[in-house]
Design brief:
Helix 4 packs antiparallel against helix 5. The protein starts with a strand and ends with a helix. The protein has a 5-stranded mixed beta sheet. The chain is globular and about 45 Å long. It has 10 helices and 5 strands, in the order ββαββααβααααααα. With 247 residues, it is α+β, with helices and mostly antiparallel strands. It folds into 2 domains: 78 residues, Ubiquitin-like (UB roll), CATH 3.10.20.600; 105 residues, NADH-ubiquinone oxidoreductase 51kDa subunit, iron-sulphur binding domain (de novo design (two linked rop proteins), Up-down Bundle), CATH 1.20.1440.230.
Length: 247
């Protein structure tokens, strides 16, 4: 199978591995850096885990199922010790909420609410009993959407609250972890494409600062057909085409 190894590694890339290869071996091939305490398995619909609990776990659906994980897209991301897992999860949840089709209640209302709760928690400035609110909302969404998009986002969020439980409790008491406080000097780790328009993950508390910078700013996600003049030209062409159809 093909597996993508990234994050706190010196040789990120796509590796061809045998099904059942231990996670520790995959990280070793990527030359994992010191201090990694958690990994994201399976991509953005995957799950966070403490590295010490899964280092020897084989990359196979059957074995991972025992710890509530799945190979998913074959993605393995090592979280640097200097980065807050709650902050990274909040960034991704905001992106996932903005990417829904908005055709059902869980996507139109549930995901934005969860993303906002997580943003408050990550910043250490929650409104009310944020953990209780998240527990209620995360339990209500799975299986109720028109597709599995909400389910994947909920899986990611719930796993973050479990893997970073001590940090979550501290953040909820308005005592954010040291990694969150020094995040501005580190930048984001999980890659997120830049939005085509403003949204909950491009504005508010996540615009500017560490979430918009890091190794993924100014890279392949910042160019393409949605950058600068090319985007404006595309929008003008689309408007002219629509006007022609109406006439």
């Amino acid at each position: 199978m093909l597996a993508t190894v990234s994050g706190a590694v010196d040789r990120p890339g796509v590796y061809e591995i045998e099904v059942g290869t231990p996670i520790a071996d995959m990280l070793a091939w990527g030359r994992v850096r010191d201090g990694v305490s958690a990994v994201l398995i399976g991509g953005y619909f995957g799950t966070w885990h403490e590295l010490r609990a899964v280092a020897g776990l084989p990359m196979s659906a059957e074995r991972m199922r025992r710890v509530g994980a799945s190979p998913g897209a074959g993605v393995l991301i090592a979280l640097p010790a200097a980065v807050c897992g709650l902050t990274e999860t909040a960034r991704v949840l905001g992106y996932l909420a903005d990417q829904s089709a908005g055709q059902c209640g869980p996507c139109a209302f549930g995901l934005p609410a969860i993303a906002e709760d997580f943003a408050q928690l990550a910043l250490g400035r929650p409104s009310g009993a944020v953990l209780e609110r998240l527990d209620r909302r995360l339990g209500a969404l799975p299986g109720r959407g028109a597709c599995r998009h909400p389910d994947g986002a909920v899986r990611l969020a719930a796993s973050a609250l479990a893997a970073f439980a001590a940090d979550a409790q501290a953040h909820a008491r308005r005592m954010p972890c040291p990694a969150a406080r020094r995040g501005a000097a580190v930048g984001g780790v999980l890659p997120i494409p830049r939005p085509r328009s403003g949204g909950p993950w491009s504005g508010g508390p996540w615009s500017g600062g560490p979430w918009s910078g890091g190794p993924w700013s100014g890279g392949p996600w910042s160019g393409g057909p949605w950058s600068g003049e090319e985007r404006a030209e595309g929008e003008r062409a689309e408007g002219e085409r629509a006007e022609g159809e109406r006439n």
